[in-house]
Amino acid sequence: MSQDLNDLLDGWPHEPGQIKVRKIMGSDGQEKVQLRLDLGLIQMEMQGRPDGQRPHGHESLLHYHLHRAAKAGKAGEKYELSAEECGEMQQEGIQYYHRYLSLFQLEDFPAVARDTERNLEMFAFVREHSDREDIVWAFDQFIPYVQMMRTRALASIELEKKRVEAALKEIDHGKELILAFYHEHDQADAAEKSAELSFLSEWSEELRSKRPMSRLEKMRLEMEAAIQNEAYERAAQLRDQIKALDAKRSSRRQEADKGNEG
Question: HSE of 107 in the Cβ direction (CA atoms, 13 Å)?
Answer without folding.
Answer: 5
